[in-house]
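Run log, item B.
One chain of 189 residues. Sequence copied directly from the ordering sheet:
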Amino acid sequence: MLVACGGNVPSVKTLAKQQHAYPTTSTDNGSYIIGPGDILSVNVWREPELSKEVSVRLDGKMSLPLVNDIEAAGLTFAELRNQLAKKYRDYVDVPEVSVTLVESRSKRIYLLGKINSPGEYPLQKNMTIVHAISLAGGLAEWADSSDIKLIRKIKGTQKTFRVDYDAIVSGKDLSQNVQLQPDDTIFVP
């Protein structure tokens, strides 16, 4: 089973304190790591035939005019931009390349259990537990909203944290509405 039994599951408050002290993710263009499935816009200034919107394939590569296949997964936007500029130097005098994220499809979260629409969802910037549950259509009838579990991989080990959804939505304890990270799982018993 996904969730540990018993009352020894720590509250998500401990995770919230760690997140506040040591933020671990960012989705700004400087530190976002490109992944398979992401859709990118590549623009080469004054070269419209070289500019296009492209998807990163499952093998981590993308295909562009003249440079063919290029590794994109695992790179930041700046790293990919620099690689493309080097490749396009063979064809353009001074290539000015920009790379932007059109849609993030490589960063996912999972909602399971008594959710109206359980499944896999794209992680959006600054997405919280309440936002994710709302995106999935809310809690299903008979859901135990005071004992939701957030399952997160921390330093290679899966950890489970208890979330009191009622305390969040009533405004009694908003600190439990933590920001989600890629591959987080929310389980509603």
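Observations after the first pass:
- Residues 1-6, 21-29 have pLDDT under 50 and may be disordered.
- The chain has two domains: 12-25+107-188, 39-103.
Flagged for discussion on Thursday.
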